[in-house]
Design a protein that fits this description.
heterodimer, A: alpha/beta, Rossmann fold, five-stranded antiparallel β-sheet, 8 helices, 33% helix, globular, B: mainly alpha, MetI-like fold, 14 helices
């Protein structure tokens, strides 16, 4: 079972050109400077940006094929994404944020809360459920964002700069927590970061992007040597 | 002492000019109140034609606010979120009706929906519908001048809203309509209310387009501003009192806006 990304994606003058295969179970960190195409890559997997040419397939199911005019809607992709800064819905409580994916599938409020309970316990969010997102610390917001992404039981978990904007102390804590999250998640795990410390601490494999192209791809041990 | 108690010296030239400007806004209200025959207030407000005008104004402006909301929000969303040919042209059109003298809008409506107008002739000959000089015409005239206020306010709010929120909601399984209802609309609620209130206030004060397209028929198309203008010739005291009633309404709107809605959407009003 693999996640195959063999496509180009053009936006204005920028082109992302990748030919990458991801294996279930590995934790992959994608690194690169700002504007290298890291976020664009994640957004294309999630279905927020269509590819310009080539294909994107998950476990043999074509998500996006520019020539065959196939495009699976983001709602149908079973891809969970944690955005930079958490991107919690400001007009909802923490609980409403967490169960959003269930409510969108027409699951009743009470049933959704019950279904989300294991995640709420796992991320120690019980005391925060009635709070507004603006009342949370950076680390708490990230935990809510992960719970929200996992609640629909996605096959792919994408983390887009999950540590950015956190102070050093929180970063240490969250890094440990993320490692546990990533370890407990069975599907495909892709983490975007511009911090090599984060990448080295959490990933099995590192991919470096620059100006839309893959300039390095290999296991984390080799990356360490290269440094 | 941590803080100097000496007042900073103000530049008196600027203060003087600003004071003149402020006085210019204040003086007309004082003048109006000074001449108002307060003892006759209750009698005049109770008159049938005045009550008709007031009721018509409230009825038509509320209908306008609702129609502007139903049609204006999707238009604002389209202008803010979707790239399509002619988008700039449509936005320019929306803005145009905002800066156009309302009487020109009224003439344009008359020559479009009038009995011999571009669309009006078919409405008349096919369906027997005649719009000019009806209450419907009042609402149409009001919508024409008021909707841009709502569209531009909501569009600005949508532009400021990070579209990644909607993207996040989509990846969580929300259909476009669900995301629009549950994420987009709640996020722009303050601006939406501000836009509705602005459109409503604009509709309430509408004069030029209404008198041109809908005429000045008491009970059918004579709204408060029209009744006030008509009274100025025959019965200046009524005009004064009607003006006062409208000032009171406008004032109430402003207070409501200041506390609840305008604070977060000031930028929404800039063009």
């Amino acid at each position: 079972m693999t996640l195959d990304t063999r496509f180009t994606l053009s936006r204005g003058t920028f082109t992302l050109d990748v030919d990458l295969v991801f294996n279930e179970g590995e934790v992959v960190a994608i690194m690169g400077p700002n504007g290298s195409g890291k976020s664009t890559f994640l957004h294309s997997i999630a279905g927020l940006l269509p590819v310009t040419s080539g294909t994107l397939t998950l476990n043999g199911e074509t998500f996006d094929d520019a020539t065959a005019d196939t495009f699976v809607d983001p709602t149908q992709r079973t891809v969970g994404i944690v955005f930079q800064g958490g991107l919690l819905f400001e007009t909802m409580t923490v609980l409403e944020n967490i169960v959003f994916g269930l409510r969108a599938r027409k699951i009743k409020r009470a049933a959704a809360a019950t279904q989300a309970q294991p995640l709420i316990n796992q991320f120690a969010l019980t005391d925060l459920l009635e709070r507004q997102p603006r009342e949370l610390s950076g680390g708490q917001a990230q935990r809510v964002a992960i719970a929200r992404a996992l609640v629909t039981q996605p096959k792919v978990l994408l983390l887009d700069e999950p540590m950015s904007g956190l102070d050093t102390a929180t970063r240490q804590l969250i890094r440990q927590e993320f490692r546990e999250v990533l370890a407990s998640f069975a599907g495909y795990r892709i983490l975007v970061t511009h911090d090599s410390e984060d990448a080295l601490a959490m990933a099995d494999r590192i991919i470096e992007l620059d100006q839309g192209k893959v300039i390095w791809d290999g296991p984390v041990s080799e990356y360490r040597e290269k440094r | 002492m941590s803080r100097s108690r000496r007042r900073q010296k103000l530049p008196w030239q600027i203060v003087l000019i600003a004071a003149i400007a402020a006085a210019f806004f204040l003086a007309p209200f004082v003048g109006l109140m000074w001449r108002t025959p307060w003892s006759k207030f209750a009698d005049i407000v109770r008159r049938q034609e005045i009550r008709d005008a007031l009721w018509l104004s409230i009825k038509t402006s509320l209908m306008t606010a609702i129609i502007c909301c139903i049609f204006g929000v999707p238009l604002a969303w389209l202008l803010a979120r979707v790239e399509f040919p002619g988008r700039r042209f449509i936005r320019a059109l929306t803005t145009l009706s905002m800066v156009l003298p309302p009487v020109v809008g009224g003439i344009a409506l008359l020559f479009t929906f009038g009995r011999r107008g571009l669309i009006g002739q078919y409405l008349d000959s096919w369906f027997g519908i005649r719009i000019p000089f009806t209450t419907t015409a009042v609402v149409m005239a009001q919508c024409f001048v008021a909707m841009p206020f709502l569209v531009l306010t909501v569009e600005a709010a949508l532009r400021q809203l990070d579209s990644r929120f909607e993207g996040a909601a989509r990846t969580l399984g929300g259909t476009r309509w669900y995301v629009f209802r549950r994420v987009t609309l709640p996020s722009i609620r303050p601006s939406l209310f501000a836009g509705i209130v602005l459109a409503w206030a604009r509709a309430l004060g509408e004069f030029g387009a209404t008198i041109t397209f809908a005429g000045n028929l008491p009970g059918t198309t004579q709204t408060m501003p029209l009744a006030t203008y008509a009274a100025l010739d025959s019965n200046p005291e009524s005009a004064l009192i009607l003006s006062l009633v409208m000032i009171a309404i406008a004032f109430t709107i402003l207070i409501a806006l200041r506390d609840r809605w305008l604070g977060r959407t000031e930028q929404g009003l800039s063009l």
